[in-house]
C-alpha cells in the first residue's frame, strides 16, 4: 500500500488535509523534527514552495492524474529541450509504522524503485535553501534516510499531508518552548 501512496496523491479522489508551516524559509539551513504516530494511516512530511503547495491543492485532481499525458503526441523533439528542474515540493511518505524510500535516492535501498524501512521515533528534516536540497533523517541516530532536490526559487514552507487519519507531533529545538495541541478534523498535531 505504501508503494501505491506515491500515486495516491494524484490518482484518487480522496480528502487530503494539508498543514503548511506559518513561517516560510527564504535563506540558510533549517532543521526541525517530528514524531509521526505509528498508527497513522498515511502521512506525508516534507517541504514545498509556498505558492506551489497552495496551487497543488486547488487544481482539480484529473489535471494532475497520471492518466493525464501532457505530451502532444508528435515526436518534434521539443519535449527533449526542457531543462530538468527540481520539483516544487518533496515529501517522505509514512504509513502504518513504515517509511517508503523511493526514487532510487534512498541510502538504505537495494531496490532502485524503492523500499520500506521501520518508522524511527523521530524524523528530522533539514532544508538547505541555497543548495536547493532537503534531507530526511532518523532524528535519534542521525542516519540519513533520503535526500532530494527541491525548488527554492521562492519561499519554502514545511508541509504535512494527512490521508485517512493520523497524528504528528512537531518538535522544535528550543527546549523551553511550550507545546500546544491543535486538532484538525480527526487529525491531531502538537506544535
TrEMBL record:
<dbReference type="GO" id="GO:0007409">
    <property type="term" value="P:axonogenesis"/>
</dbReference>
<dbReference type="GO" id="GO:0048490">
    <property type="term" value="P:anterograde synaptic vesicle transport"/>
</dbReference>
<dbReference type="InterPro" id="IPR043136">
    <property type="entry name" value="B30.2/SPRY_sf"/>
</dbReference>
<feature type="domain" description="B30.2/SPRY">
    <location>
        <begin position="1"/>
        <end position="179"/>
    </location>
</feature>
<dbReference type="GO" id="GO:0001578">
    <property type="term" value="P:microtubule bundle formation"/>
</dbReference>
<dbReference type="InterPro" id="IPR013320">
    <property type="entry name" value="ConA-like_dom_sf"/>
</dbReference>
<dbReference type="InterPro" id="IPR050617">
    <property type="entry name" value="E3_ligase_FN3/SPRY"/>
</dbReference>
<dbReference type="InterPro" id="IPR001870">
    <property type="entry name" value="B30.2/SPRY"/>
</dbReference>
<protein>
    <submittedName>
        <fullName>TRI46 protein</fullName>
    </submittedName>
</protein>
<dbReference type="GO" id="GO:0001764">
    <property type="term" value="P:neuron migration"/>
</dbReference>
<dbReference type="GO" id="GO:0044304">
    <property type="term" value="C:main axon"/>
</dbReference>
<dbReference type="GO" id="GO:1904115">
    <property type="term" value="C:axon cytoplasm"/>
</dbReference>
Amino acid at each position: 500500500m505504501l508503494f501505491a501512496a506515491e500515486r495516491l496523491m494524484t490518482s484518487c479522489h480522496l480528502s487530503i488535509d494539508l498543514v503548511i508551516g506559518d513561517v516560510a524559509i527564504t535563506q540558510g539551513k533549517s532543521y526541525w523534527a517530528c514524531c509521526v504516530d505509528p498508527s497513522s494511516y498515511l502521512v506525508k512530511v516534507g517541504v514545498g514552495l509556498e505558492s506551489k503547495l497552495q496551487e497543488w491543492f486547488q487544481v482539480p485532481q484529473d489535471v494532475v492524474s497520471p492518466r493525464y499525458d501532457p505530451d502532444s503526441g508528435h515526436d518534434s523533439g521539443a519535449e527533449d529541450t526542457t531543462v530538468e528542474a527540481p520539483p516544487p515540493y518533496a515529501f517522505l511518505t509514512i504509513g502504518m509504522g513504515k517509511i517508503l524510500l523511493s526514487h532510487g535516492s534512498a541510502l538504505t535501498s537495494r531496490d532502485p524503485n524503492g523500499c520500506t524501512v521501520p518508522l524511527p521515533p523521530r524524523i528530522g528534516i533539514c532544508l538547505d535553501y541555497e543548495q536547493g536540497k532537503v534531507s530526511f533523517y532518523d532524528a535519534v541516530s542521525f542516519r540519513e534516510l533520503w535526500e532530494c532536490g527541491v525548488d527554492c526559487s521562492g519561499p519554502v514552507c514545511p508541509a504535512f499531508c494527512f490521508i485517512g487519519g493520523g497524528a504528528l507531533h512537531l518538535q522544535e529545538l528550543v527546549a523551553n518552548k511550550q507545546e500546544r495541541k491543535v486538532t484538525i478534523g480527526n487529525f491531531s498535531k502538537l506544535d
